[in-house]
Amino acid sequence: MKRNIWLDGMMGLITGDALGVPVQFMSREEIKNRKKGPVTGMESGGVYDMPEGIWSDDSSMAIATMISLKEKEEAVPDDIMNKFVEWEVEGKYTPFGEAFDEGNTCSRSIYRYLENPDIRTCGSVGEHANGNGALMRILPLCLYYYDRQTRFCTSEDEAIEGIHVISGLTHNHIRSKMCCGLYYFMVKSIIAGTQSNEKPDLKKLLQSGIDSGFDYYRKDYVNLNEMKHLERLFDLPEFGKVPVEDIRSSGYVIDSIEAAVWCLITTDSYRKCMLQAVNLGDDTDTVAAIAGGLAGLYYGYEEIPDEWLSVISRRDWIEGLCGEK
After folding, report:
1. Fewest CB within 10 angstroms: 24, 125, 136, 297, which?
2. Closest by CA position to 17, among listed 295, 322, 317, 321
3. Residue 55: CB partners within 8 Å, gap ≥ 6?
4. How far is residue 54's CA from residue 254's CA, in Å, rounded to a whole number?
5. Beta-carbon-side half-sphere exposure of residue 193 (alpha carbons within 13 Å)
6. pLDDT tens readout for residues 202-261
7. pTM, 2 dp
């Protein structure tokens, strides 16, 4: 049976997001020392006091992007940005009709766009605007360009340019764009590598994707200075030996991509990867969402625990969207 990469990836992302919402902003030590101990499954509560299975801005913005891609059958930045406006202002693409947990950079960019609807100027360009708010929502665009490269021989340059433009709607600094580009190369490597019955080691697939990404970015010397921020990902076997104490899980895009990759290469199932991610603490929902998209693509929808899927808000609607051609 032909796999549905949209279902694998998007439900992997959304489930990870929902798993992390109840412990968002809690430190690693606070989670570990709770009366109930580390996270072992879906919970309710948290800073936003949500029922179990509720997903946050990460999933909403990813869903909005996916819907735009499927409606337009191409990546239209203005349409994607208008859907972000609908999410922020009207509560569309949310679990219960109201946006919550909006990141400051995303929110500012949306209201900047409302004042002046120009996709070239709405995104934040400063170095301090390198949060994870573009990386957390870039998966649908990665799947879209993978499909285009496979079916229409779309060039790598076109794919990366498209990813950079959509990243830049909110996070318009090259560091954020480069992390989104690396994510695309990892997505490509995982999907291509899992087409056969004999599935290669996840660490090798991720390393292959990262190597391809760095090879691509090295073509422009302007990127070389930025690559130093990602040097811990150069050698994943070594990075996998880094102790948990040295893994940061903040909202900074470098911390987030590192934490997500570390969780992927130090676990051997979707369940273990997600629990590892949320128990790191801090930006739990986003780290789990970033890791969850890749874990879903590698392990498949069938490996996402049924007891987690069963409580995902608006599950049928989301899975219906993933099934549309």
Report:
1. 125
2. 295
3. 14, 17, 18, 21, 95, 285, 312, 313
4. 26
5. 21
6. 999 999 999 999 999 999 988 999 999 999 999 999 999 999 999 999 999 999 999 999
7. 0.97
256: tokens are 């987030």
Mean pLDDT of 53-82: 98
Which class for 213: exposed (0-12), middle (13-18), buried (19 or more C-beta within 10 A)?
buried
Would you state the structure tokens that stand for residue 298, as one six-digit string?
């590698």
Beta bridge partners of 252: 131
Residue-range domains of the chain with CATH: 5-323 (1.10.4080.10)
Q: Which of 257, 266, 269 is nearest to 237 (CA)?
A: 266
* Dihedral-angle region of residue 132 (phi above 0 means left; psi in -120 to 50 means alpha; beta otherwise): alpha
Helices (H), the chain: 5-20, 28-32, 57-72, 77-85, 104-115, 139-152, 156-167, 174-193, 202-217, 224-227, 236-239, 253-265, 270-278, 284-299, 306-309, 315-323
Q: By the 8 A CB rule, do 161 and 239 touch?
A: no
Gap between the Cα atoms of 244 and 54, Å rounded: 27
